[in-house]
Amino acid sequence: MKAHKVGLEKPALQLGVDHDLCPGCGEPLALRMLLEAIEEVGCAQRAICVVGIGCYTALTPLMDVDRIQALHGRAPSVATGAKRMRPDALLFTLQGDGDMVSEGLQEVIHAAARGESITCVLLNNGVFGETGGHMTATTVLGQRTKNSLEGRDAAYHGHPILIGDLLAQLDGTAYAARASVHDAAGVARARRMLRRAFESQLRGDGFSFVEILTMCPTGWFIGTQQGPEYLDRVLGSVHVTGELKRDGRYVSTAALRSRAARAASRSAGRGA
Amino acid sequence: MSGAARESRGTVTIATGRCKGCELCIPACPPRVLHMSVGRNALGVRYPELLPGCTGCGACLLVCPDFCFEVYRYPADAAAEAAP
Amino acid sequence: MTRRLMEGSEAIAEAALAAGCRFFAGYPMTPFTELLEHFARRLPETGGVCINAESELEAIGMAWGALASGARAATGSTGQGLALMQESLSEITRAELPLVVFHMARGQADYYQATRGGGHGDYRHLVYAPVDVAEAVALTQLAFDRADRWRNPVAIYGDYLLAHVAESVAVERLDFGPLPAKDWAADGTLGGSGRSRNVNSLGMRNGVKGIEPESFWKRLQAKHDEMARLEARSDAEATDGAELLVVAFGTLARFARFAVRELRRSGARVGLFRPITLWPFPADALRAAAASARRVAVLEMNAGQMIDDVRLALLGAAPVVPIGGISSDAAGFGIGPLLDAERVRGRIEDALAGREVAG
User: Could you say which of 3.40.109.10, 3.40.50.300, 3.40.50.970, 3.30.190.30 is the CATH number of the domain covering C4-169?
Assistant: First the structure.
């Protein structure tokens, strides 16, 4: 009796499955969603990806779309130049949190303020993974990294930056959203958000931004099996998932957190 | 859960040789029909094996960082025991 | 285009447009600012794009993206702004992108920066130093051609004087012959084909894990060696039998040329050698020009930078003396007292007489 395939090993736009990223890494999950979203909006033959520098850079030889490799933090300006010369292309960046929010904070904010018709995609695991697990501008308070071994301390290290909120408040930003790949539903949600961001770009609405929280058990000093729970509890409580900007309306991370808390207490109240 | 053999509405193929043993698929599977093997693959890690009761939902495929899964569904009016 | 009076900044912008430049990005900084203003006004008129970037780093980044997608693009600044762009300049060279850089310097003290580069790793740029606005117009167009031909950045070393002097020029489009198509460019069209492009500086290839930087960098070195063999340019006059050879570059060389001609009219056996490419430094031509010289006098407005290349080229064939020095105006823009025909003539006369030159 014939079974029909409902899940392909890899997306059509992926050139292979062999990579050396760590066991339990969330970035390949985001890669799959990205490549599927490009196909969903029918833009395989007009997509240009500008890549930052981080662990995910090693995944780019697997991406069958035209790519431009940029420097750490500097993908948004490169994407700007490419989009201005190729306005019909689907232009997006692929950057980590160290890349976009530490080194490249200025670049992404200016691109959004200018309302550049590009989609900046942030893979946020709260660490500089490629250098071995160091604190970035998105590392949350209490998170242990190689240069915050006792846990990030506000008095000494300052507070994390919620880049999604900064971008969503700019008039040039048409769509901003945050997803998390700690479970299958979150992974699927990431693809929906990417699709909406791409559609926004294709409509000419302006700048779009999708943040995808990913697991980095190596950088978090935990076992791979603990990755999803750590992501949801430690990062997800600060970088709360949801849509921050849509149809001109900004919903802050704080509001998303309250919403999530109310939903949780309602379902707890209904009893399990 | 009944004690009888569970019906499988779907199945998966697993590239066990490429598995890095991260175990993300185990809790991601809604009917909990993946469990880690006793034996180890050439990379030296345990890998997932499929029990009866797969629904073909594809959650394992979505959460695997190493693209080890392919997911199949059986036609709705037939049921079968899981086959690898 | 008819001949008309144009300041250097405007003429250079017009030359870039004549060469098909479609993208420019820059950050205002003296004496580069007017170049940005001219591009901002004229590029939209020709269907191109000019962005007033929020930083020098973003300016070169935007040019990078435009180049990588297949367009002719340029950026620029003055020395301080170029200093900010160094990592990108190195990586753009290693990604083999045809960037044209307008280095509008505050004088001649950026020679090291332009020729050695302040970025990391082994990389070289072709560097042209025009003597006047007319030559800048020709060299700007040559720059776009050579950048595409070699897939390598090319810099124009200008300065405040060049930017602001107005000369009567006609910007005629120069034709340098056919160039190969830019099928290496990431224009978006090859997604899903298996042959999609990855414009990168590491030698990354589709479907291949890891990189092989050593072989990649050696290939770049071979390209730069070939550029060095083929692209040196210089100008020389009255070098046959000259006892003293004056070496000068850029706008200061115009003063040296004037002084040398005056001195020759009064019987002095003095010649002038003017490198047009600062890299590759025209060492062979300099050796030939200095064949009869008993002394070589290097006139440059800095603490002594080009003099290193002169000494390397001559390897002791003749004594080399500096007759220039640091010279600037009250704002530090490089319009120093040495930009004066009388003063330059005096320095050359000192060298002719074997007198110690006041620095």
Answer: 3.40.50.970
